[in-house]
Amino acid sequence: xxxxxxxxxxxxxxxxxxxxxxxxxxxxxxxxxxxxxxxxxxxxxxxxxxxxxxxxxxxxxxxxxxxxxxxxxxxxxxxxxxxxxxxxxxxxxxxxxxxxxxxxxxxx
Length: 108
Hints:
Layout lengths: L18 H10 L3 E8 L2 H19 L3 H27 L9 E7 L2
Antiparallel strand pairs: 1-2
Helix pairs in contact: 2-3
């Protein structure tokens, strides 16, 4: 389930679930959770959000502003991704910041 991601498919963006919401929903659906894990290291998630904010800001502009910002973002985005990847190998993960969750459920 995607969790930490910008609004998309408005006004039909209803699929944001925390691990607690997923547990509740699985229970209400009479499903047993066999396994659950968060996806995305906190540093990679932070890097993803920064890159999306940069790209989204450029996409929202029109005309000369878009062309002015694009050369600034083009080198920044790969550097942010590389930095986030490196930090994810050096920095401890934070369980409260995820890109989403993977669930394995069974119906008893």
